[in-house]
Amino acid sequence: MTMAGARPDTPTEPSAALLTLQQGITSLRVCRWRVALLAVLVLGATVLASLSLGVQAQPASTVLRELLSLLPGLEFLATPGAAREVLLQLRLPRTLMALVCGAGLAMAGVAMQGITRNPLVSPYTLGISPAAAFGASIAILLGWNSLPGTGAYWMVGLAFFSALVCAVGVLGLAALRGVNAIVLVLAGVAFTYLFGALTATLQFFANEQQLAAIVHWTFGSLNGRSWHEVGVAGGVWLLCAPVLLLHAGALNAFSAGGDDVAASLGVAVARTRIAVTLAAVLSSAAIVSFTGVIGFVGLVAPHIARLLIGGDHRALLPFAALVGALLVLLADMAGRLLFAPVVVPVGIVVAFVGVPLFLHLLLTRRNEMAA
Questions:
Q1: What is the rounded distance in angstroms from the CA atom of residue 131 to the CA atom of residue 252?
Q2: Which of the 8 DSSP states describes residue 150?
Q3: According to the model, what pLDDT value does residue 6 have?
């Protein structure tokens, strides 16, 4: 018997609500996997197009055969000649550097935006890219970039050292004030203007050739990238990326409610902020030291990824890497092909490619953005 006034269906209501929630989570995961799979397929097709197209176009089948010939036991597929050398020594390193550059800057942007709860933060706005430009400008002004055999290393080394000095300065000022997000952002803005002014001062004293070299470096370019440069930049990024992925849950806590919520969930706020910031800064510094200033990727790629799959950093970090890699690769292809034989620096083209795409997503999915 059922007592008067009792509701027999009451015990089943929590189960139904739980079932609905589980179905919603499952549907969201499936949707994310579909979007990620589509992004991987598009990126793969874009990589193949980047390797195939150029002054001397090569069929996609030839490119695939040459790539397969690099695998153990498939050396017989190789076709020795100038076309193979162009593919393996020029186009492949350039394409891989584009992937590393886009993925690294995008992941750094996601991490910095999450840790500071500021959607306008990126490696550029924290001063990393302007600091690297200042270091490279010093090498150019002193003529060290023209030294036989070691010129490129001097320029990259000074750019990387200057970026690290900026990172230490930003973290040091934030530590003096208690390592909070507001001080971190404000310190980054201050160093951005400082290194921008220092670079402008060096340009004022440079001659015509030096000024042209400094300005060209600040445009950001993938021209002439070597396997050694790809290995260094990619190696640093591969060391820093797991640190960011391991802190994805903490980034969710910071994004949800800031330091107080993160601390209530057991996150070591100061230690986590330092670890995430250092990993993001190191990967960004290593990349921009070789490529020059490509400042837009770290800002727009995280927003595009967030609009497509949501704000869960466990999925957002790797997906933003895909979006950033695709964005830089498309920009590089456009710069190489649209005005051939003139090559437009990727730092310029990436803004023209990314801004319309970002505005389109912003206008068509403004409800998700507001959320």
A1: 29
A2: T
A3: 47
3-state secondary structure of 105: helix
What is the spatial distance between Cα 77 and Cα 41, in angstroms, rounded to a whole number? 25
- Rounded to 5 degrees, φ, ψ at 342 are -75, 135
Spatial CA neighbour of 251 closest among 90, 116, 75 = 116
Helices (H), 206-268: 208-219, 227-246, 248-264
27, 20 contact by CB (below 8 A): no
Sign of the alpha-carbon dihedral angle for 162, 166, 172, 175: negative
**The amino acid at 260:** D
Tokens 């990967």, residue located: 283
End-to-end CA distance of the chain: 48
Model confidence over 209-236: pLDDT tens digits? 888 888 888 888 888 788 888 998 999 9
Domains of the chain and any CATH numbers: 27-370 (1.10.3470.10)
Say what the pTM is. Answer: 0.83
Helix (H) / strand (E) containing 299: helix 297-309
Give the CA-trace dihedral at 78, 84, 87, 92, to 10 degrees: 40
Report CA Rg, the chain.
24
* The two three-digit tokens of residue 329, written as one number: 């690769």
Tokens of 236: 């640093």
As a whole number of angstroms, the distance between CA 20 and CA 8 comes to 20
Q: Give 46's pLDDT tier (boundaries 50, 70, 90).
A: very high
